[in-house]
Design goal:
The chain is an alpha+beta fold. A hairpin with a 5-residue loop joins strand 2 and strand 3. The longest helix has 11 residues. The chain is globular.
């Protein structure tokens, strides 16, 4: 049986990005997260592998916070497993 993926996009303020990404990862079926700027250009992308939780993602969250700190608006694209 082949696994299919679907992509969802969320528009958020720069100061909400880290919390939104944490919320999405807790949902459990996220494969990849892509952060895009106002122009739709990818500024950060990272895979979310099964079993990666908590402290293992802290460096990613720190880098994510720094990358979007000055952005007013950005888009989070989430690739999910069906």
């Amino acid at each position: 049986m082949s696994e299919q993926n679907r992509t969802e996009e969320f528009s958020v303020n720069g100061d909400q990005v880290v919390e939104k990404v944490k919320q999405l990862i807790k949902e459990g079926n996220v494969r990849r997260v892509i952060i895009k700027n106002e122009k739709g250009e990818s500024i950060m992308e990272f895979p979310v592998t099964a079993g990666v939780v908590g402290a293992l993602l802290l460096p990613t969250f720190a880098a994510l916070g720094a990358a979007v700190a000055l952005m007013a608006q950005c888009t989070i694209a989430v690739e999910r497993r069906d």
